[in-house]
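Researcher: Please generate the 3D structure of the following complex. Treat every line as part of one assembly.
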Amino acid sequence: MVVEAVFDRQIGDAVRKLLAYQRDAPIRIRIVSPVIHEVQLPDGEKLSEKIKKLITFKKAMVTLIVNPRWMKKEEEIELLQTFEDMGVRIHYKRDLHAKAILLDSRTDKGLLLTSANFTPTGLSKQQEIGLYILNDLGHIYQRIYEYIIKLLKETNENIRGGDYRANLV
Amino acid sequence: MKILEEGTTVPTWFEFFEFEKDPYEKLDPYKIEFERLIWDRPDLKEAKERLDNFIEDVLNKKRVGLKIFGPAASGKTWLTRIVQKELMQKLSRREEKMLFLYTKVPRIEPTFQIVYRLAIEYFLNNYFGELANFVKESNRTWEDVVNDPELATCFRHYSSEALKQKALARKWLIGEKLTASELGNLEITYLIDSDYERYEMLRKLIEKLTMTGPFATCILVIDELENAPVKLAGQLSDCLRDMLDSFSEKFGLIASFTAEKVDEWYDLGYTEYLGRRFDYTVQLDSLKKEAVAEFLRLHHGVYRKKDAKIDDHLLPFTEESAIKLLELMPLEYHYPGYFLPNCRDIARLAFEKGKKQIDAKFVEDHFQKVTFK
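Model: Done. Output below.
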């Protein structure tokens, strides 16, 4: 049972710990971040490589919610395409500003709440603050889980025949 | 039975255990004969109750929706086939017929076009003959029965002896591209070349055939929803919701998807609007050690030789060995689709050693040789 306040570069390490490969299937990961870029985590592995391994070898279900207004650059769209090709479910939520990772595996329930976007700047340059919880504060975990499911419900209603850009209207 | 020399035979491993067929063979549930399909999960009482209620609603010609979910290999497709069997048996007692359409979102090329095409192909392969007989025997025209000029023309061509016309009619109905002259040959004026038209055609087909055709009701099964990318999930949500809304009766929708928890419906990209329209949700839970022997006993029963001289269908396993096998398997594999192949591995090893009964020690000693460990 772990509850830790994490700051600056420690947030990247909390991401690494949450996405650790050695978890028991089934593994469900929900990543909420307005912006996401390719990031090298403290163990030297890229975020996308870690996710790919979890999907390929552990059959993890990975869901990503981003803000379409902040994911417009060519390299950002390319990264989303890479994630989608791996099997990540990408959802677009306008006005999204929350940042969190929620882990649900057979034996572990983990949560990272942070001010940092999952970008190299957010995880290694800026002054950021976060809270890392593993198998503790179940009621907090449950509230955040319910909030993320609510976000997904709203997001899906906006897909409108498969065109997420409806979110931008 | 292998024939060695004249008059000498050696039983195959499953005959050695007095089975008619390999009881553990991994088969597409839609290729399993009805007599070998049996409700073998007496532990899932709540699921069975909901399933029975769904079946009752279908028999009462209601508009009804059923959502099935569970992890991989938990038996979701098998469950839809069980529904098909029970409904067909119950309806035939009332001398009624059902239009049962099965389709799925394929892992490769998950598009609405393929989902539609699989449903139409299932209809043509399994129900068109029945429909053609109905038209012939009732002395009615295709136009009378189908009540739609284009669809009637297509069916007239599909039922004809001329193979070229039949192939063209099939091509048109499954939504493939046709040249202007091919379309002219069919005497049809438009192509089914957009997802909207595909959806409309499927809806129309169900509506016409349950209204004026020989079918008392229709069940549409859409399986493997988890394979749809988020955008397709949104599109399917709109279509299926519209379909449920557009029929006031004689329509059942079964949607099945792989998930640990029902909330994963939203991760997959399906909408609350559709989710709310399902009347029943059935979760396929894992096999528990208290129920695994009974599961295996029931499963074996439908594969056993009629003249088998045994007093327990659980053989060659025993209560203890069935439980031991399950206990040794990791929890994520505690589902029929993983348990049965492991039973097969153990049974084959027992056959090789000439062992008629498998005890817990044998399972323990040979567990490293099973597939799912």
